[in-house]
Amino acid sequence: MLAWVSMIPKPYDWERTLTNTRPIALVETARKILSKILSDRISLACSRFDVLHGDNFSVLKGTSTQTPIFAIGLIIEDALEKNRELWLVLQNMHKAYDLVGWFHLKASLARIKMCSHFIEFFEDIHNNRTN
Predict the structure, then answer these.
(1) Secondary structure of the chain in the HEC alphabet?
(2) Cβ neighbourhood burial of 122 (10 Å; 0-12, 13-18, 19+)
(3) Which of 48, 101, 103, 123 has the most beta carbons within 10 angstroms of its beta carbon?
(4) Mind listing the pLDDT tens digit for each residue in 65-108?
C-alpha cells in the first residue's frame, strides 16, 4: 500500500520555509476507511464494556475535558484564596496519538483484551506501507 507525504502550510504565510509547514501522510482511501472502521469498533468496545475509567477523559465519543478543567479551576481558586504556592504541570496532547509506537499500542490493545488476530491485522495495515 502507498502513502504520499505532503507539506501543508501553517495558518500563516509560510514564506517558503519548511519549518512553517506541517507534513501530512496521505494514505490511500481503502486503508483510511478500513482504519476508521477498526478504530470506531475499538472505541465502541471501550465504551460498551466500560474499559476506560478513572482519569481517561475525552478519549471516547460523548466524553469531554470538562471535569478535569473544572477540577483544575477549583485547585487554582483554592490556592489563590489561601495564598498558597501552586505549581501546575501541563502536557500538550495535541499530537500524542501521532507519536504512539506500535510496541506500546500493541501492549495497550492486549491489556484491554483485544484478540491477537485483530491486533496483528491492525498493525499490518499501518506498518506494511511505503511513504
Answers:
(1) CEEEEEEEECCCCCCCCHHHEEEEEEECHHHHHHHHHHHHHHHHHHHHCCCCCCCCCCCCCCCCCHHHHHHHHHHHHHHHHCCCCCCCCCCCCCCHHHCCCHHHHHHHHHHCCCCHHHHHHHHHHHHCCEC
(2) buried
(3) 123
(4) 788 889 999 999 999 999 999 999 877 666 665 567 788 888 98
Which pLDDT does position 85 carry in this prediction?
A: 96
Tell me the C-alpha distance between 2 and 85, whole Å. 53
Name 47's Cβ contacts closer than 8 Å, sequence gap at least 6.
Answer: 60, 61, 62
- How far apart, in Å, do the first and last CA atoms of the chain sit? 9
